[in-house]
Amino acid sequence: MAVAVADVVAAKRIPPRRSPRVARIDDLELERIASLGWRGLDTAELGEWQLRAAGGWTGRANSVLPLGDPGSPLDDALASVREWYAARDLPPTIQLPLPARDDLRRALAERGWTDRWGALVLVARVRALRAANLSVPGLPPVTVASSPDPGWLAAYHYRGGGALPAVAQEVLRSGTAPGFVALRLDGAPVAICRLALDEGWVGITAVEVDPAHRRRGLATHLLAGAVEYAAEHGAEGVYLQVDSDNAGALAMYEKLGFTHHHTYRYYRP
């Protein structure tokens, strides 16, 4: 069906679905895909900025993702951000993919916003991880469920915290089709992670291994099972986030073949 240009009231550019291009995908495109896998429960758009809120649980679900132009002068956009988060009793927070949004980082710093925390984003190819044959002999196969059971939830401690708040379960279940991976010994989960499959990528988050069972290859075996599941569902690229000061995790992922793609930092006034 053809529509005359004169009859168009509003339009929005829809980017074509891209192949993962693990080595070449840019920071903003990968963060856009990651935003599909870990979502805010309350969202809005400000031009090409995504505003997300979820009761304050996790930075990604409670921050602005500035993928492009906010559609207004920066100071006006920041005033709108402050107002939107104040209405939800949350601090205004902007997630800055770097180096892609270094321009915005400088502008925020000039206005008194400061760097609070962040992480490194690592990527790998599903094919390469499968070829590395990461499964550990003698360990049981991992399982993947469409929702987290009580054992999985009990095993997850976000940033070392205690019991998860009710809103956490809503965030964990958000997304197109999240997968909850577990490696169980004697029926109890001793290693877990969460998967999000979107546009040819699988995001691996919420990785945790029971301290009593560490240094046995459980994390590697868990990753092997997660990658197999991702491959069966058509994923070609893998991304995950790691704290920059988590030397042990960084060394493990780099040994398995992950490379640093970009960094993101959270800024607040």
UniProtKB/TrEMBL annotation:
SUPFAM superfamilies tied to this protein: Acyl-CoA N-acyltransferases (Nat) (SSF55729)
Domain N-acetyltransferase stretches: 142-269
InterPro entries (alphabetical): Acyl_CoA_acyltransferase, GNAT_dom, Rv0428c-like_C
CDD domains: NAT_SF
Pfam families assigned: Rv0428c_C
Top-level taxon of the source organism: Bacteria
Entries under PANTHER family matching the protein: L-2,4-DIAMINOBUTYRIC ACID ACETYLTRANSFERASE, N-ACETYLTRANSFERASE
Protein name: GNAT family N-acetyltransferase
Organism per entry: Cryptosporangium minutisporangium
